[in-house]
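We store chain and fold; example below:
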Amino acid sequence: MKRYCRAVLVAGLLASPLAQAGVYKCLVDGAVTFLDKPCPEGAVGEELKIEPSHAPPPAAPASEPSTAEAAAEPGAKGDRIARNIELRKLKPKLRKLEDRKKDLEKEHKQRLAEIDRQQRTADGVQKKRLKNQREDAEREYNQDRERLEKEIAEMKKKINDLEKAPETQSQAQAEATPPAGRK
């Protein structure tokens, strides 16, 4: 049934003006989606080569499944693709966290500079209030910074684990396979 639905979808795309534009098959959150523009960031996919309806479709190589099919297939290739998909999602998130940490530091410095500026012209009661504001600002900044640093460390660990996973699997397969000539 799925093949029939896909065939109908591709046939419909051939007859439509979209056939002139690129058609992209994307794997987004585990679901196959067809789009008229390149796959969104974090999605894995490929541009479909749509031939005019009068030409026979080219034969797909038997040894190379599509990216979406490979991601769904069990085994080393599917695992590698799934890891790559996860890495493509995590790396931009890590950059955003690191940028947020820089922004937090910049905002904190600006806040402290404003408090210091106000203290220069403040009287006794105002200075005490500003001193309390400064202490609160320091405490909030330290809590936020520690939270972000923890998230960044966790994200880096996930990325590192995903990047090292293929090496570990290759090593395990090499150790499990006896050398040629020995049994």
The first helix runs from residue 2 to 15. Confidence is low (pLDDT under 50) at residues 63-67.
